[in-house]
Amino acid sequence: MTAKPIVAGLDLGNGYVKANINGLVRVFPSIAVKQFNTGHHTPLAEDELGVFMKDIINQMDLSFSSPLVRSTERRLFGERALKSGLNLEEFDVFARTGKSEVDLSGVLALGTIAADRLYEFYEKNESLPASGKLKVKVDLATALPIGEHKLHAKTYRQKYVNEGAPHIVTFHNFERPVHVEILFEHVYVANEGESAQYGLMLAKDDFLEMIRREAVKRFPNGELDGITGKDLVSAKNTLGIDIGEGTIDFAVFSNGKFNPDASSTMNQGYGSVLESTLTKLQDEGYPYKSRKELSEFLHNDPSPFTKRKWTHVKNVNQSEENRFGDVVSSEVSKVFSRVGGFTEVIFVFGGGATPLEWNLFQKLQSRVAEFGDDNLLPIVYLDSDFSRFLNVQGLYQVAQRLRQAADSGVKKQVVKAK
């Protein structure tokens, strides 16, 4: 059974997947686990389907037939993966191999879309497909780090397009497998950070006001009085610093257009802070096995029983954050030396922005000041809770325009042929 084409923006972050599919936003950890022993699988009963569908991302058991996924093992996702006790499959923030080259990217992208398709079918029919098969066509926008994009964007896109053949995702949660055939009709691979700027340009009023407040509070003498959030996001020459878990992308816009020559990627992100903290804690005898586990512990309020341990872990992590802040600010100097004379606004955003703000903002200010005291350059430091969605919202906006752009291109070719 084929549904109407879906529009998807997928931000496959090193820490979390952010997906916007037909306006529905989902967020879940960028992890999976491979299953090598599936003999004890217990299929869901019919009266359990409703509960499963409400938490499908965290409960699904999938296998893949796709050029995006080379291994054939079944995989678990989300909370079920975290609690399985099996070795986590997650993006290696220190590896030279990029997102476009590892199975996990395909696993997460295809799994997200398959989950959406099955969920949509169940919502309408309150049952699984009798044929055991669903089909879906997709207009997709996704992204790669700037440095990786320059080398691998074309090949990565071709894997999705798959010469017009479908990718097959199989659910193994039920008495009979359910197969979802995914056909990508239009695919765009953006630069990370570039797509976030598109998200900023299309920001709504509440978000624009937050951006204005964030900029103005850094200038207590009124230098930015009268400026609006729209003024800031509409600036033609900007530097976006997208702090992810595995990379930091420095996205430069010149005269309103993305400037790939001046943009760059630093192949470390906030995940490297967590990895360094994890190593030190493991040397001290702490039992954390992954940066995801450590991150969950740090970002939850401690109980009276864990407060002492939490405080120690926090102190170790802040020491690593301070060291990393020096590395980032040094990298900003390199970028700024290329484009600083033209830059009007700096935006700092991404999932790693808020944890680093306590020490990074002052270091960025100092770096900017090195280029002249009269340099009135707003640094808009956006909270991670808001800004982690900038890339995916920008990607969704791009995906919405892909079909129309393709149709327009065909019409232009027809006119030229005449």
UniProtKB/TrEMBL annotation:
Database matches in SUPFAM superfamilies: Actin-like ATPase domain
One Pfam family here: MreB-like_C
InterPro entries per record: ATPase_NBD (IPR043129), MreB-like_C (IPR049067)
Domain Actin homologue MreB-like C-terminal: 241-360
Protein name: Actin homologue MreB-like C-terminal domain-containing protein
Organism, scientific name: Shouchella clausii
